[in-house]
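Support request, please re-run this one:
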Amino acid sequence: MLTPSEVSAKLKIQPSTLRKYSALLEQEGIQFQRTHKNARLYTDSEYIAIESIIAVVHSGKKSLEEAVIEASKALKKNVSVAPRERDSDDIAAATLNEVKQLRIQLQQQEERQKERDIMFVEVLEKMQQKIDVLEDQQKQLLAPVPEEPELDASEAPLQQEESEPETVLTKKDTRSLWARIWNK
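Re-run finished. Output below.
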């Protein structure tokens, strides 16, 4: 297996150019092996495919896209034949490596899910607190006003003038909750 820096040095291209060609091959369905840091690793056949892409593009006979499609087809043919040529130890090692990568991906996915769950619970708790506050405000607005004790007859006319606003308050308010909160 070759590292990206080894392939770049051998082909005398920039690492960014190698990444571009590799990404185009991946779009065509080619799967590169990866390191634990998610860097691509290149087999000899993948190295040869990239080398052929560069040669075809520099010759001017085909576009980059056409060269990539041609190289990916050649790689796919090699992949179907390659397992018969490999010995069982190589196959077992490749399978084990793939299982390890899948475990890492699964673990990362589970961690992201836990983070999302925690954020979701926090948002729900904040919403519940806001609902509780609104319910308390609604109870305060709808609470009955205590009646004042009756006054003697000499204060009755004065009480009548003052009681008019009180009767307005004791009438059932049919405005919406938000209209009562914002007093509109």
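Residues 88-142 form the longest helix (55 residues). The mean pLDDT is 82.
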